[in-house]
């Protein structure tokens, strides 16, 4: 545990966010951000019970003022530790609705990740692993499909932002990467959803996803990945 | 000139929009929509002087209320003619600014094109050419780059929407396609910008772009293009 | 009919090749190349009966010596006319076989198109339309799939060659483009194959494909397309 | 060291192949295949000196008979151990030559990797990590460019084969993936080639590449990557 650095996970819950928290907490104190404290409380408790360091912050990643307040508090509470790793895992409701019913407001890509960049830049010289901003996308990051134009628009925009940030801040030493998660995720609340015929390991395990995000963080700056796809071995694609 | 049908061009001006208007006016009455009447007045005059039919409407494609009003007026003024072709050519200011200066408001994809879909659907049975929604994109539709994350986010989102609409409304008979314009455009106000070494035809001619959009409109429904790239013969890509 | 120029179609038969021949013969004398004279004889007869100019040559596009001989004969017989348009439409047997049964010999991309480039280069100054090399690809040009590794390897390689040629010879004035045909083709011998539920226009019409290839040939050099996808309006993609 | 399994590296030398050998030898006995014994002898010696297990085999990956003989010998010498990991790292001479000088023979994608699939399939049940076939590609895997049509054709074909194999054998439990290496590699014999302004870590370190290949091998089958890009933090792309 290197307490000179810490990690932030934006978008927490009992699925991927939780797995990221436990994975990163093996190496860094972790800050968990969610709109609802109920999303992170038990995770914080578990990490502490296992000897790790964790804190939760209630904030809305789509509200710049809320994020400013959250990051202000993080900087105070971290007593000079530096941000080494930020993960942005916003998995909104994938509402399936015909395009004609869309409203312009739906079409808004979250850029809360922006708030983490300045902090990551300050860690370039000192961090043992390249400071990283890792974003989780989905199948809809790569293709639009009928009835999912809002989801795809948001995920395409997120990919555009990730690519642009990667190209802008990579040469400054911050590793920005997108993880495209192409398949159903094996989370407790989706047990009833059968994918890939219900075969074993037919859904992505959050721990396995977290393992690949951690690998991205440890990549040497001579050999960075911009985009990583992840899908079950039985997935059609 | 088939007056049972008409075309709409959203995003008009002395460049691509104007060329589209003249191209489409050879076959249909045209409706030109712009925020400023000064953008379409001389074009409307020219088309009429050449025996065509044209009308201009002042409206803001990013404001649903403004678009509702515009389309209401179009339906009244068209006396039962049907929409056969809609082109969406929004080429906003490609402001180059570092991501850290971005505001969330910048990251908004225009979906004014949405308003045209219901009208196009009503023309499927009668229109000699498949009713079409054609959208003009840019290099930034395909890749993010440093300092252009807002532009890319918007263009990626636009591409996502176009792909999604194509997959949703194609089987219903409406041809939705994206034209990716990869290069500088040969417009009067950009004469001073030298691209490709200033070589002849080193910028895209608006008339040539319009010709390819027209080709898309005339494609038989057995053989539609989803995405068309256009660039000068000397362009690096 | 501009007899100072001619077109070549490599890969002829009663489907796309035939449609290309009739389309191009409206504008140029056409040379049809096939391994078997039976593939072109009736087409040549038909074109002549309609007042066009056509000749057939028996040659093997995968055999450099055979192609050399064929192009030698073409140059003699054309009496100084210049090549304005070459189409390469090799649609081999799409044998579905597991990879483990493949042989290395299967994995050979045809580069017969190469033979046409020097002739096209000589037409750059004089040809009214930019001299063009147009190649037809398939779904397998864009993605590999189980049991189709040989098909995909060949089509990927063909796409690589087309892209490379486009980038090398485009700035010299030769328009090289790939047409990705994504769907079943409506040819007489495939009437029994039901695609897209047998819906009307659910297969690509060869004439419609030919129309889009002709459009590519007529594109102004300021606005060229590198890659064009074509698929039926009802196609899933 | 798990001696019930072993790894094969096809394409060995003092760069990536050597790094792969040392990385994999931490976990498995390794078999190194090259056309010349001088390519692997010192690596075998080094691995043994460090307590690992290694053997070299002279064979030509483009010759099916040679590969058959090599794999026959491997199976004999491995005394019932199973193949858990095969890496195919063919980095031929990237000759820059105009397309018109190409010969058809150049355009041949290597499919030596095919030989490894049956052996990997036998390890699915027993191997602690999913048996893996990992292939190294290059920038030319993703785009053709002027003067590099042969390189691109080969790399495109290789990508097609890798994708097809991934889709065919993934559901059977074999992880097939492509690593796209986009940049110059920091190898002894290329020290004189300056890339990215000669900045530190401006070339890919073979050890870093090997680390990412190893990560692919350890990915849980619920969350596999098909394609991984790697490039220096300062690389333009």
TrEMBL record, chains A, B, C, D:
Give yes or no: UniProt keyword Membrane. Answer: yes
What Gene3D superfamilies does the record tag this protein with? Answer: NAD(P)-binding Rossmann-like Domain
What residues form the membrane-spanning segments?
A: 6-25
Q: Which UniProt keywords apply?
A: Membrane, Transmembrane, Transmembrane helix
> Which InterPro entries does the UniProt record give?
NAD(P)-bd_dom_sf, SDR_fam
KW Iron (keyword) present: no
Q: What is this protein called?
A: Short chain dehydrogenase/reductase
């Amino acid at each position: 545990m290197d307490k000179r650095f810490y990690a932030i996970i934006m978008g927490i819950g009992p699925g991927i966010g939780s797995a990221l928290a436990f994975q990163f907490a093996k190496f860094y104190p972790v800050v968990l951000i969610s709109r609802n404290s109920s999303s992170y409380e038990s995770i914080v408790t578990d990490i502490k019970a296992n000897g790790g360091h964790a804190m939760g912050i209630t904030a809305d990643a789509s509200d710049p003022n809320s994020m400013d307040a959250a990051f202000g508090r993080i900087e105070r509470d971290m007593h000079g530790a530096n941000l080494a790793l930020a993960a942005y895992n916003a998995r909104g409701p994938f509402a399936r609705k015909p395009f004609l019913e869309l409203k312009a407001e739906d079409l808004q890509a979250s850029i809360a990740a922006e708030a983490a960049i300045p902090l990551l830049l300050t860690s370039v010289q000192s961090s043992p692993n390249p400071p990283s901003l890792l974003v989780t996308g989905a199948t809809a990051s790569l293709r639009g499909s009928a009835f999912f134009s809002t989801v795809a628009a948001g995920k395409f925009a997120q990919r555009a932002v990730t690519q642009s940030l990667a190209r802008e801040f990579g040469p400054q030493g911050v590793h920005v990467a997108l993880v495209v998660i192409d398949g159903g995720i094996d989370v407790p609340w989706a047990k009833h959803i059968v994918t890939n015929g219900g075969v074993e390991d037919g859904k992505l395990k959050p721990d396995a996803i977290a393992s690949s995000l951690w690998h991205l963080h440890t990549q040497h700056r001579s050999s960075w990945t911009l985009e990583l796809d992840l899908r079950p071995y039985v997935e059609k694609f």
